[in-house]
């Protein structure tokens, strides 16, 4: 049956979705499977050196699936401010500390190859629970934690929004694209999914972005500023020297 809504990043939490009789959720499982597929691909592309950042609960569902697909637990980071969740995550071998995602972003120095910001709340955030998706994404760009080929999955609740899924896809897509551009990246939406709503749980949406570099990280690091603040010196245009027209003078014989 339906379980009560409890955010997955607090102690004693459960998934805030309608479940099957066996305790699983079909739509959430589909999102997990897609993320694992993308993470595995990126892990192979990085030669087995990349890391993964996820928001996971004490059920360790995503972490377990990632490790089952061949990504070592030592390459997975799952910050959580619930001690029960942290204990569960560390027990299966992933990196987890009792902290907000914003704290992890502020201290990390190695950009993950792929992110899944799997929030239970709305994109605007929740002051009481201390999470703000929009601010977290801003910080990720400000800290230069996106690289060429990086993938970022975002799950938020559409509660209180009047848009359809398609419209909200565009809303979030345009917002992320607008934030990526000043830091030298383009973004493409490569996958979306939605579930819940209509009396069967909170309406959720997952949208996955892939980023590509349009200005090198070296240049961004050298300038220390966003691309929009970098003023390129225009190369001087070559001086055009006009050739003088040659005039041939033909002597005219004088009459006597």
Explain what you see.
The structure is a single chain. The protein is of the alpha/beta class and 256 residues long. Helix content is 30%, strand content 16%. It contains 7 helices and 6 strands, in the order αβαβααβαβαββα. It has helices at residues 26-45, 61-68, 83-91, 101-107, 133-142, 165-180, 217-223; strands at residues 52-54, 76-77, 114-122, 151-157, 185-195, 204-213. Strands 2-1-3-4-6-5 form a 6-stranded mixed β-sheet, sandwiched between helices. It starts with 25 loop residues before the first helix and ends in a 33-residue tail after the last helix.
List the topology elements:
Elements: H1 26-45, E1 52-54, H2 61-68, E2 76-77, H3 83-91, H4 101-107, E3 114-122, H5 133-142, E4 151-157, H6 165-180, E5 185-195, E6 204-213, H7 217-223
Helix pairs in contact: 1-2, 4-5
Largest sheet: 6 strands, mixed
N- to C-terminal distance: 126 Å
Give me the Rg, rounded.
27 Å
Structural class: alpha/beta
Number of helical segments?
7
Instruction: Report the strand count.
Output: 6
DSSP strand content: 15-25%
The amount of helix comes to 25-40%
| Shape label | globular
Q: Order the strands across the largest sheet as they lie in space.
A: 2-1-3-4-6-5
What's the order of the H and E elements?
HEHEHHEHEHEEH
Nearest-integer average pLDDT: 80
Task: Give the key terms.
256 residues, alpha/beta, six-stranded mixed beta sheet, 6 strands, 30% helix
How is this structure best summarized?
The chain is 30% helix and 16% strand. The protein is built from seven helices and six strands; from the N terminus they run H-E-H-E-H-H-E-H-E-H-E-E-H.
